[in-house]
Amino acid sequence: MYSESAGTRKTLGDVDVLYHDGIYHLFHLVLPNHDFIAHAVSNNCLQWRRVENALFLGDPGGWDDSMLWTIHVTPDPHKPGSWRMFYTGLSRRDQGSKQRIGMAVSDDLYHWTKAPVNWKDRRSPLPYELPGRPPQPPFSYNPDSCFPLDPDPQYYESDVCEGRHWISWRDPFFYQDDEHRWLLAAGRIKDGPVVRRGCVARMEEVAPNQFEARPPLYHPGLYDDVEVPNLIKIDGEYYLIGSLREDAKIRYWHTRDVDAPWRSYADNVLLASGNYAGRVCADDEGYLLFSFFTPGGVDRVTFNLMPPPKRLVRRSTGHLEVRSFERFDEFVDGTIDTTQLQPLDLGRESNVECRQSGGLMCECLSGFQGFVLPQNVSCFRLDAELEMLDSGKCGILFRIDRDTRDGYYLSLDLFKGVAQFRSWGSNGEGSGEEMMRFDSLQSGYWQNETPGKAKVRLLAFGSYLEFSIGDKVILSLADKAFSKGAAGFYIESGQLLVDHLHVDKLTPPLQTDEHLANG
Questions:
Q1: pLDDT higher for 128 or 219?
Q2: What is the mean pLDDT of residues 211-230?
Q3: In angstroms, rounded to a whole number, what is the distance separating the alpha carbons of residues 274 and 318?
Q4: How confident is the model at residue 350 (pLDDT cuts 50, 70, 90)?
Q5: Backbone angles phi, psi at 128, to 5 degrees
Q6: What local confidence, expressed as pLDDT, does residue 391 receive?
Q7: Peptide bond into 216 cis (omega under 30)
Q8: How many CB atoms are closer than 10 A to CB 279?
């Protein structure tokens, strides 16, 4: 995992990942300053090393001299072996109220040169000479350049006097296939309810590095912005992926023809709340979905980190879903004996019975009881098939203190298809009514084909926690409240059949969440 530390007053922002010659190249924002684009590399997406920073703020007078925002790195279609970085910039001239899109180029992914721009330096002239001052303007000027790209008033909000008085034109994404060569962006149509104008804006590359405005690719008609758009094509179907500030979720839409209406499935959420600014990356195995995770809810500028990616796949029904990253297999370090589950509360009447089929039937007819493995675990991957034999409650416990019962509680409704991660513990003695600590971390939903039954997988890897139903990741988050303890299942007034239980021990991550803040 990857983050900036709180002590530096920095945190990770929007990410973009490009895979080349067996190496994943991560480019990301650094908040809250937005003053450079950081670069890190990895060969497995689980261990990262910071390398040379990719891009910095422009000098005063440039179009990008205030802030740098989201980027997209892609191979240069006009120069094989080279790359283009499209990036968002803000200028001091506009006091950050208008976003624009520029471009930088590289022959090695490490050294980047900003493209010439058609931009005037409007700072006040000095009435005297400064010895040794570099040539002006402080950027490469070309009156024929289309950069920086502004929203076209024919289709989009383009003036700070409109709408919110703050112009969205950011988060570029370059897409090409045999028919199209587009640059997408988070923009806004110019009419309609002000907080419902968010759209995926579109520009077309009509000549090398020359882009012209086109009508929006898609306007849902509901959201303030559709942030960090992505466009991919799988099995003849186009998929548009975007992040929405309204609920901090990553969603998608689909169509067979980009000129036909974009459609939405009843459940079009790819990652639950807290996972944001999703970016797709193509590697040798298909598509990966990266994002950053924000534990602070609506506050998305502190304590962010980038969790492991998810494998993005298309089901036979046309739905997209995310699955657990296969490279976790490389961290398996033995298995845990699962033949014995022990009651957590020995004073409560309960029972664990081994069925002839090999499954374990856990029963507690009144109140709460946990059934846990004998040894404590920290990093692990648990697989099981669960069946609720009556209408009681059940869930998974892990990193539980056997004395205080402090730890993580994953509540499961196997009938309605609801999963809820909770951190449940206690503060210091004598803290009165504040002694109980209960934090709801994340919720997710699924459609259960057989009510009462589910094939589940729980993964705990450092602070990263992931829960899947079948192959589909339902919950994905990070939390540091508990690091080690008992693991197992719980029942509240019911009977739970646990079958095909298997637990792998995982080698803990070699890097802390804060590792890359200092190299």
A1: 219
A2: 97
A3: 25
A4: confident
A5: -145, 160
A6: 85
A7: no
A8: 30
